[in-house]
Amino acid sequence: MSDLSEVDEKSDADEDVVEEALGLAPGEALGDLVPVDPAHLTAHEEHAHPGPRQYVMIGLVLVILTAVEVALSYVETEHSNLIIAALGILASAKFFLVCAWYMHMKQDAPFFRRLFIVGIVGATIVYGIVLFVFSSTVLKS
Amino acid sequence: MTQSVVPAPDAYHLAQAESGHGADTNTGVSNAKLAIWLFLSSEALFFGAFISTYFLYRGRDAEFLKGPTPDEMFNIPFTSVTSFILLMSSLTMVLALAAMQRGDHRRLRIWLLATCLFGLTFVGGQVFEFTEFYREGLHLGTNMFGTTFFVLTGLHGAHVTMGIIWLLVLYGRSMQNRLPSTNSESVEIAGLYWHFVDIVWIFIFTAIYLIPSH
């Protein structure tokens, strides 16, 4: 009898953890009975996707960055390298925002992130070498 | 009987599925998501080749500026508007996914349709731009600018068109109630492709249109 009451108490405690993790009211977590691994609860908290409000905010930031990019392209200056560097930084910032928030790289399994980064870094290295070799030899004249 | 059991709401399982964790596969991650990320990784190399080719000839090859030049041809305000539209399509796409994850199929269809319309507007703008360039004498074989520009932006436009078809298929399946809420991954995968096409354009727009050609 005492064993059963211990199990009940532990179940109640676990249920509280589930409700707290999901932001539910006490007693709201009613569903199928499944074994709970507390580590999974942490994973859920970490990996939940952002909400529509955050998506709209990111969209606004992207619009502002694009507007700044276009404005920069109209700036007449002798230091065009500075403009090119600024445009590169702004494009990279937009790339990061879309990848991290819209493609859920921040929340997804790290394996996917690594896979994609391998492609991006691989492309940068390979084509960096190609550009360097061709510009310094084949097209130098 | 030492294993504890507690109620777990559906949101718990949805969160697991969203993150790609806990899939019943050898790798522990969803096979479909693994495939799309591998594909996108290879696409980065694919588009990298064409962007590099454009940079390779720009300002380094006499053939690049023989005939119509980028400065004479580009209509920056027009392309800025189409770029803005493509960026907004990424927002509507992610809102479609959020609606799907909430089980709100009506909003899912609205956002999917909005994404398709934005995509179609972008492709329409590209067709208009290509037509204008052709009328002004810039063809695929006119100079290296024409070759590298039409191939790169044309391939990107083809990718956007494929994305539109994909989203329309999802829209049709949703209309026929063949897209259950438990299958939000199919919308997420289409979304990943769409966002990738968007980030490729972020770099094309900056590299080709905004950076001075000489």
Provide a compact summary of the structure.
Chain A has 141 residues and is an all-alpha fold. Chain A is built from five helices and one strand.
Provide the descriptors you would attach to this structure in a database record.
heterodimer; A: mainly alpha; B: Four Helix Bundle (Hemerythrin (Met), subunit A); elongated
What does this structure look like?
The longest helix of chain A is centred in the C-terminal third of the chain and has 27 residues, at 110-136. Chain A is built from 5 helices and 1 strand; from the N terminus they run H-E-H-H-H-H. Chain A is an all-alpha fold and 141 residues long. Chain B has a single domain, classed as Cytochrome c oxidase, subunit III, four-helix bundle (Four Helix Bundle (Hemerythrin (Met), subunit A)). Chain B is 74% helix and 2% strand. Chain B has 7 helices and 1 strand. In chain B, helix 4 (76-102) runs antiparallel to helix 7, helix 5 runs antiparallel to helix 6 (144-175) and helix 6 runs antiparallel to helix 7 (184-210). Chain B is elongated, with a radius of gyration of 21 Å. Chains A and B meet through helix 1, strand 1, helix 2, helix 3 and helix 4 of A and strand 1, helix 1, helix 2, helix 4 and helix 7 of B.
